[in-house]
Amino acid sequence: MRVVITGAAGQLATQVIQFLEQGHEVIPFTRAQLDITDLAAATTIALLEPDLIIHAAAMTNVDGCALDPDASFRVNALGTRNVALGAQRCGARLLYVSTNEVFDGLGEEPYWEFDQPGPLNVYGRSKLAGERFVQQLVSRSYVVRTSWLFGGDKPHFVSKVLRLVDENRVLRMVSDEIASPTYAPDLAQAIVALIQTDAYGVYHLVNDGGCSRLEFAQALLTMAGRSDVELVPISLAEFKRASTPPHYSVLRNFAGAQLGVVLRPWPDALADYFRRVR
User: Fold this and answer.
1) What global pTM score does this model have?
2) pLDDT score recorded for residue 168
3) What's the confidence (pLDDT) of residue 174?
4) Domains in the chain and their CATH numbers?
5) 43 CB contacts (<8 Å, ≥6 apart)?
6) Which of 119, 121, 256, 268 is the most exposed place for a label (fewest CB within 10 A)?
7) Has residue 278 got a pLDDT over 80?
8) Could you tell me the CA-to-CA distances from 70 to 122, 163, 247 in Å, in that order?
């Protein structure tokens, strides 16, 4: 199978590439190699005649999206449209990586794949627009929503917290933003399993369970042996930032589980992360 992967330098795509490069022809594109915001990207992709496109490129700086909505929609919406047009022209399947932030976070139960999106912020709106382009333009497509990705080579929540505790013994952590931490290698494996099927549609692929930012930090500091660090709970309202994340956006993997595509509980994945980095 010939697979084009966008966002190839990102923490998810690098993991997917490792799983796919054995046995498949993988054509990775970094941002420098393919400008998805240029309509010509559709032609570039189509001429390669891939069997599958995994579209992981995105503007994921949530606060940056709030500060520059034009850039957010140019990359996450119109950039995705261009990739989808490339898939349409060559008849390729397309997998699009989306986010938990397409939901408003006003509920108290995990979101199903069938729940109505209603994003609160620019990032979520731009990613939802990307979902719609994919669904409108490509009949054979997967939309994979995930959240709080950690474990790749790029900076992520776990690595940032560990860096902060090198200089601080007291950290303020939000206690009322709750979602599903997701380990990049586990998500990559789930994606590889999903693309072996022709069960197209929307999927929530996250490590099982949910927690607050505070609980996530508590768990990772315990595993890192940093009992010397004090965590001070604060609310989202106290944590001033450009964007407004949903309060509760835990995702339920229902559709994937029916295919046998499941991810282990997030504490187990976090423990595996620490085993690997050590």
Assistant:
1) 0.95
2) 86
3) 96
4) 2-154+182-210+248-264 (3.40.50.720)
5) 86, 89
6) 268
7) no
8) 10, 32, 25
**Span 68-91, average pLDDT:** 98
* pLDDT digit string, tens, across residues 112-157: 999 999 999 999 999 999 999 999 999 999 999 999 999 988 889 9
As annotated, the active-site residues are: 123
**Tokens 């010397």 belong to which residue?**
228
- 167 band by pLDDT with thresholds 50, 70 and 90: confident
